[in-house]
Amino acid sequence: MNTRPFGLLAELTYRCPLRCLYCSNPVRYPQGHAELNTDEWTHVFRQAADLGVLHALLSGGEPLQRKDIEMLIEAAHDAGLYTNLITSGVGLTLSRAKRLKKAGLDSVQISFQADEPALALSIAGTNAFRSKLLAVQAVQEINLPLTINVVIHRFNIHRIPQIIEFAVNLKAKRLELANTQYYGWAFKNRRALLPSAQQIEDAAKAVAEARKTYKNRIEILYVLSDYHSLRPKPCMNGWGRRYLCVNPIGDVLPCPTAYEIPNLTFDSVRERSLQWIWEHSEAFNRFRGTEWMQEPCSSCPYKEIDFGGCRCQAALLTGDPSVTDPVCVLSPHHPLLERQLQESRQSLLPQDEMKNIISYRTYS
Ligand code: SF4
Ligand code: FES
């Protein structure tokens, strides 16, 4: 086997003080298992580096909920990995930020839900706005590269100009505006979260305008939702090709959302080496390469470019993870996605009525 992973997503915990409507924690995962401890994670980072991994995204849930976060960052750094902390910012005080930098932290991404506290509270379900501002200040004070990330959906898409201005005022060098991708809790809440066609159009214009206005002051990365594209993305850069994800209980997944796929068996770092899992586990081999593809992917010239799109999306939308991602216009299931989009647009509800169709995360 020639491929080597270069990225590790280390989901250190699913605990989080926020409960965003689009939470990326899995909707279902095996209960009753303890989180990996410091030694277990240290072993994971060393094995990952030996496998060829170059960078570790330390995320969650909220990774700062781990009391041993400094030790975990030190372990990843000592293993030779570039470390990026993906955080809500809650709990990132100046003294903690200094300790994390000393431990070897290389860069930080802080998420905001909106540019104003009231809207942010209604999206995150927790009042975290001030803590986030303090976290931004702390990261700037210790001079680490900082990205501000805002997940975009129907409740905040109209504020894109203000969100960009907010990030500029925070002196952020990089802003990531990522339209919600519909997996997990976001999939459950998609009828509430999907923006209208007009909103999508207005947002693209607002971003283009802001890029001119703030040229050289901030880099704005704008990521469209798959649902609003005509060709799928090469999800995870191809299944089992470049990335692996170790979740809080030690299961190793080709993609953080892979619990969505029925009948897939995952191996744990508590029972197998990372190298064995990468090379031999059923989960990594099921959709690796192109052999598993059905038509239209199997004879398509794009199959080595987008790898048939996203397996989780295919599973969620059709029940079959091995079909062409329905996002693709060539997929026989594409009309299903079109129908869903149309239905959600027709069912635009006032915001207070939206609350009745929203599901909140039910575990802590
Ligand atoms: Fe990609 Fe498959 Fe669509 Fe071709 S048919 S563009 S390989 S998803
Ligand atoms: Fe799992 Fe795309 S989100 S393969």
From TrEMBL:
Origin superkingdom: Bacteria
Keywords associated with the record: 4Fe-4S, Iron, Iron-sulfur, Metal-binding, Oxidoreductase, PQQ biosynthesis, S-adenosyl-L-methionine
Class of enzymatic activity (EC top level): oxidoreductase
Catalytic activity from the UniProt record: [PQQ precursor protein] + S-adenosyl-L-methionine = E-Y cross-linked-[PQQ precursor protein] + 5'-deoxyadenosine + L-methionine + H(+)
InterPro entries listed in its UniProt record: 4Fe4S-binding_SPASM_dom, Aldolase_TIM, MoaA_NifB_PqqE_Fe-S-bd_CS, PQQ_synth_PqqE_bac, PqqE-like, Radical_SAM_PqqE_MftC-like, rSAM, rSAM_sf
Pfam families, per the entry: Radical_SAM, SPASM
Domain Radical SAM core: 2-216
GO molecular function: 4 iron, 4 sulfur cluster binding; cyclase activity; iron ion binding; oxidoreductase activity; S-adenosyl-L-methionine binding
Binding site for [4Fe-4S] cluster: C16, C20, C23
GO biological process terms, semicolon-separated: pyrroloquinoline quinone biosynthetic process
Pathway: Cofactor biosynthesis; pyrroloquinoline quinone biosynthesis
CDD domains tied to this protein: Radical_SAM, SPASM_PqqE
Enzyme Commission code(s) on record: 1.21.98.4
Cofactors: [4Fe-4S] cluster
SUPFAM superfamilies: Radical SAM enzymes
PROSITE patterns: MOAA_NIFB_PQQE (PS01305), RADICAL_SAM (PS51918)
Cofactor: how bound: Binds 1 [4Fe-4S] cluster. The cluster is coordinated with 3 cysteines and an exchangeable S-adenosyl-L-methionine.
Its job: Catalyzes the cross-linking of a glutamate residue and a tyrosine residue in the PqqA protein as part of the biosynthesis of pyrroloquinoline quinone (PQQ).
HAMAP family hit by this protein: PqqE
Subunit structure: Interacts with PqqD. The interaction is necessary for activity of PqqE.
Similarity comment: Belongs to the radical SAM superfamily. PqqE family.
Protein name in the entry: PqqA peptide cyclase
